[in-house]
Amino acid sequence: MNKLFKTLAPIALAITAFGATAADPFPASGKVITIVVPFAAGGPTDRVARDLAEAMRKPLGGISIVVDNAAGAGGSIGANKVAKANPDGYTLLVHHIGMATMPTLVRNIPFKVESDFEYLGAINDVPMTIIGKPSLPANNFKELTTWIGQNKGKINLGNAGVGSASHLCGLLFQEAMKTDMTPVPYKGTGPAMTDLIGGQIDIMCDQSTNTSSQIEAKKVKAFAVTTPKRLTTPALKDLPTMQEAGVKDFQVTIWHGLYAPKGTPADVQKKLNDALKVALKDPAFIKNEEGLGAVIVSDKRMEPAEHKKFVAAEIQKWSPIIKAAGVYAD
């Protein structure tokens, strides 16, 4: 018996050492999933990630999901953190349209957007809003256009930092208004909004997830939304589209997606994608997001391959715009 034990013991030990990881269920009890947000806490992408974390907990067996804000360099610092993470499904990334702009916007980007991540699916589409400081003399878009024409070279256009959604929208807004404005970048949407409310900057183009509550509280003036159709949320329902306001072909929608490091096991990817799909139908998640003007994704972009195809098309769309503007996030 002792001889048999001595023979089998090393085999059993080897199975434990090398086979346990493969056999462990995902997610394992006691583990924590970290969702990295490549922007400051309190911003629109942070809010989406926190809503999503709560909605994904139940379909993943009640596992703890925390949000880690790793801001900087056009969103590439946080993205790189995930690209270099252990591909075990416990470190994920929620990123917005920056996934499509980083390849052009960030010099010497330390990863490849299209090949260093596993695409888990799209989350939502978020409209942008054109807003101004409360003391701005304009009260509608026509008056805003007149005011801009009268103040060429004197207007401060705030944004949440180079590469942020508000920065990208601001580039298009300047082009549409056919005038130069002074860009004022901040380290996040929070401080930018604070200065807009305080009158230190004049205008900003930002996501409805960040502006709706400020518009509803009348802390800022709102002039238009960037969607093809008017929105139905209480804070935004009376705002015209840019098309209605007389600006043709001005449509900007900021989308968010979920990603894992390249090499994450296929079965783990499927469990995360399944949990994402359940979360996108969660009533509390839908209520939170739609209350901020966001539209939950319900089309084929919920599938990893389709979301990846969509991001590739967005890279092609934004690359010439960024190159023409000559802006970079170092």
From TrEMBL:
InterPro entries assigned = BUG (IPR005064), Bug_dom1 (IPR042100)
In terms of Pfam families, this protein maps to: TctC
Kindly state which keywords UniProt assigns to this record, in alphabetical order.
Answer: Signal
Which residues constitute the signal peptide according to the record? 1-22
Q: Which PANTHER family match?
A: BLR1237 PROTEIN (PTHR42928:SF5), TRICARBOXYLATE-BINDING PROTEIN (PTHR42928)
Q: Which family does it belong to?
A: Belongs to the UPF0065 (bug) family.
- Protein name in the entry: Tripartite tricarboxylate transporter substrate binding protein BugD
The organism is Caenimonas aquaedulcis
